[in-house]
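Sample intake — Ferredoxin III, nif-specific
Collected from: Geomonas terrae
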Amino acid sequence: MAYITGLTKDKKEWTPQFITSIDEETCIGCGRCFKVCAHSVLNFEEVDEDDSAKMFMKVENPGNCIGCQACGRTCSKKCFTFEPVVA
C-alpha cells in the first residue's frame, strides 16, 4: 500500500503521520499540544458537568494537519493516535 510521502531538506523520504483522534479519557487538558501546533488543528472542549472547569483537547480542523506529530511528542499522557494517508 502506498502512502503520501514527503522529503526532508536532505532529500530523505518520510511518511507523515496525521492525527486521527485524541483519547478524551486520558487527556488532562494541559494545552501543551495546542501551544505547539502552528496549524490550528486542535481546540479545547469543556466537559459539560455541574460546576466543572475540566477541559480536554479535540481535533477541530483535521484537514489542517501536516503530519509533523509535534502535538503527540509534547503530550505527557500519550493521548494521540496517528496514521499515514493512503496516496
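Post-analysis note: The beta strands are 6-7, 13-14, 18-22, 42-46, 55-59, 80-83.
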